[in-house]
Design a protein that fits this description.
With 93 residues, the protein is mostly helical. The protein is built from 3 helices and 2 strands, in the order αββαα. The chain has a two-stranded antiparallel ribbon. Strand 1 (39-42) and strand 2 (46-51) form a beta hairpin.
């Protein structure tokens, strides 16, 4: 016999504080950073129109940035594997 789950509007109210927190402290800052990354750099105003891909072209064309990106991914991989090797036995115990 199947049990039916009833939808309650109160459950949405319980999610509201978490959703607002995520929107204000994660979605908005990340979307602002992504939007700013497509703008042109101006020393007086930091980022101004027009929209351009030159920031990404410079990032992907500069070997220093690519080296830092590769080191970052290598470190993230090592940390992930290390924590999995430590975390799974601890969680099973």
């Amino acid at each position: 016999m199947k049990t039916q789950h009833h939808f309650r509007p109160v459950s949405l109210l319980l999610l509201l504080p978490v959703l607002l927190f995520l929107i204000f402290f994660f979605v908005m800052p990340v979307s602002y950073a992504v939007r700013t990354s497509f703008l042109t750099y101006d020393p007086a105003n930091v980022a101004v129109l027009p929209v351009t891909l030159s920031n990404y072209v410079e990032f992907l064309g500069n070997p220093v940035y690519l080296n830092i990106l590769a080191r970052t991914f290598k470190l993230a991989f090592i940390v992930t594997i290390t924590l999995l090797l430590i975390g799974y036995p601890v969680a099973l115990y």
